[in-house]
Amino acid sequence: MSIEFRLATDVVPSGDIQLANGTVVDVADWSTLIMAQINVGTGGDGKQRVATCTATLVGPTVVLMAAHCVDNPLGAKPRAALLRVDGRKLALDCAIHPDYLKHDPRVSSPRGSEDWALCLVNDMGVPPATLASMKFDVVLATSPLALNEPVLMVGYGCSDLHVENGELAWSQSDKRLRIGDERISSPPIWGSLNPTYATIVSSKGLEPALCPGDSGGPLFSGIASDSPRQPRRIRAVNSSVAVSKRSDAGYDIVSMVAATGNSTFERWAKAWVNQHKLFKPVICGISRRPGESPCLQ
Hints:
mainly beta
């Protein structure tokens, strides 16, 4: 069964101002986000487990998401996915970064830090009106994330994330966008086991942080929760989250993001555009400059 993505403006209650992590959020500011719910099996209590995946439209026919959202450990090709928009179901042709696929498959976490997938939206040459009039987010691939750099986390899929008895606890998605201001706790370290991971420590086990099961969404710089309409850049893809015990016996929530500001991502994204040149895909920040139509400034 295909993973079905929908626009955030269709998923989050239309016209409402959502309260997320104490911040007032207007869903209209996040029109490039798309979201999917994915069945991940049945838990010990017999209940169906559902994960969510957030992705970003970075061009009229291009989606950037976490590789593990569409990874198929048992098959040679990524999982089938589609985008529902304007009453149409458009197939997504997804490609996963080859370095990610070199890692062994894992059941409950991404294979590695190269956790990126690019997907071509097959609109059959007729773009949906919503996408034809949209301005798209810009990926920054030429500047690495720096220690203590301010960033904005964006997610969807849970609320009330906290640490309980040393483990993450949360409530299932309440159809609210979750955004929060943070700073980079450790930038990517080239040559390490996970060379493109940056980490964000949400001290004392408090939000904002990534939700378990909510991956693929963008990490931004240039904006803050109280000023989302400033020029913004995608700096990473949300990948995974863990708990870290402190020396005082308390806990922090550690979010890991797959940074885009490196040659590993940039070379691959440019090669992907070239491989699909017949379809003339645009990736804002890679094949089109900020401010050039159809890219945001």
